[in-house]
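Moderator note: this is an archived Q&A kept for reference. The question asked for a predicted structure of one protein chain; the sequence and the answer are reproduced below.
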Amino acid sequence: MIDNNQLINILTYPARSPYNLRQIKMAHRISIQLAVADFLFYFISLGWLNFFVREDGKMIFKQKNGFPAIFFITVLILTTGLFFLSGCKKTNKLNPEVSDPQIIVNPDNIRLGVARVTKTEIVFQGSGFQPDDSVFISLIGPDDIKVVVADSRVYPDGKFTAKVTPLAKVTGILKASITGTFAADGRYNQILVITRDPIPTGAYTAVATGMISNQKAEVKFTISKPDLIDNIKDWLGKKAGKIQVKKA
């Protein structure tokens, strides 16, 4: 059985992979299955696709709101192809031999699609900081941009883990706001409202700063332009009413 790290290594460095051809083909099949599953559940979250299980145990997907099947299939093919070509990237890890303050981020590159940013879990980890201190993470980049995106308490071993919160992604990175409506059945439908441009793309420096000790560590973080899949997802989100654009 191929685990996650082996899958990443095979897809990233196939020529140098110690695995045989059968294992490499299996890794590519797994990557395609993951891409298809990602888009299936994205459609389900939009409410355009429901699934149910028949009496014989087979899972059946059913369209909603008259969504055209041919377009759905086309999007799946595009997603699979682009995901297959893009490959995967290795996870960044802290260096256990470094005793001074250090910080890493996973992923260290994110595309600036609305759905992409809101769905991606961005996690900062650090070590070498003063125990029981608190740290905050700032993104410093083009045009004198400085945005605080995360904070965390430092554990007794000097390490910390800080996740970028959904609110920080929306207001800090996307420069958007959140509203919503209640459906007839009482469900709350959250809507992301785009009123201005997000922070610019480019190379950023993520700086972790200790609030008491003033210790600092930094790491590179890149924000890239959205790709075709990101644009398709955002277009679908607008059609479903999950994203609204209200720029002046």
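Archived answer notes: Residues 21-46 form the longest helix (26 residues).
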